Amino acid sequence: MNNEDMAVEYFNRGEDFRRKFAEQVAFTAGEQTARIAERIKRSVSFVESYRNAYKLYYELEREYETSQPFTMWNELPPQMWVKAATAKSVYTLNYEQIMKHLKHAHKHGLSVDAFREHIDTAHGLQQWIRSVKNIARSANKFRDSYMSEVPQHKQRKARILIKVIERLIKELAE
């Protein structure tokens, strides 16, 4: 079984297998990523976000050479790693800063939403910007998780709505 098939298999097994899914998609790119996204009925960005989460874990493993990244990879929700990888990029955080945030989440048992709020607060986002970004996350979740349930004749309008929301939010948050 190739990485693409294994990624789809792990994704279809549910939330308990998202780490394995992330590991498999870390070894895919381009058309393969698009095929996986299509097969699991999610967006390419969804697949890429899990790829980035695994790559962050791998980089922290190399950087720290301790059991801490491994422990946190296994004990923190994969979505938290997705947020950590996104935050690393958005806020241009270094490995030390990311580890600090992950350790905080691990120590205090933060939920994914609380972790997101913790990072956004730590890096100075005002509440109104965080609220706008929550709208964007909701739109993305709709696109990534529920678009396949939208009747075919309404999907074009739904995609347009999401693109407009994303564009306006980007303009507001700049």
Describe the structure.
With 174 residues, the protein is mainly alpha-helical. The chain has two domains: 3-124, no CATH class; 126-174. It contains ten helices and no strands. It has helices spanning 3-12, 18-25, 31-40, 44-64, 68-75, 78-90, 95-108, 112-122, 127-146, 152-173. Helix 3 crosses helix 4. The longest helix has 22 residues, at 152-173. The radius of gyration is 17 Å and the shape is globular. The N and C termini lie far apart (44 Å).
* Overall number of structural domains: 2
Rg, Å, rounded: 17 Å
Helix content: over 70%
DSSP strand count = 0
Q: In percent terms, what proportion of residues is strand?
A: under 5%
Number of helices: 10
Provide the succession of SSEs.
HHHHHHHHHH
Q: How many angstroms does the end-to-end distance come to?
A: 44 Å
Class based on secondary structure composition and strand pairing: mainly alpha
Largest sheet: none
Average residue pLDDT: 89
Indicate the low-confidence ranges by residue numbers: none
Gross morphology is globular
